[in-house]
Design brief:
The protein has 86 residues and is an all-alpha fold. 77% of the residues lie in helices and 0% in strands.
Length: 86
Amino acid sequence: MPLGSGIKYRLVIWTLATVLAIVWVMIYAARVKADPKRSVMYELDQQRREDLANAEAEQPVFTWRHGLCCSSSAATVVGLIVGSTV
């Protein structure tokens, strides 16, 4: 079987499937934008938003230890770059 056999048919089917998928997603997005409760993930999203709100209230303070870890990581990356280019 040649490599390009049926390429026109496959391109037409792929184009139709892609267009249909895009149209369906746009319709679904418009419905959810108008009424978020129609989303399949509405309840899970509500719980996630509550969890994020609680997590934002408990943000840790950036300490000198965090800075030391970031500095050592950056120094390691710089060392790897310099070591691999020399």
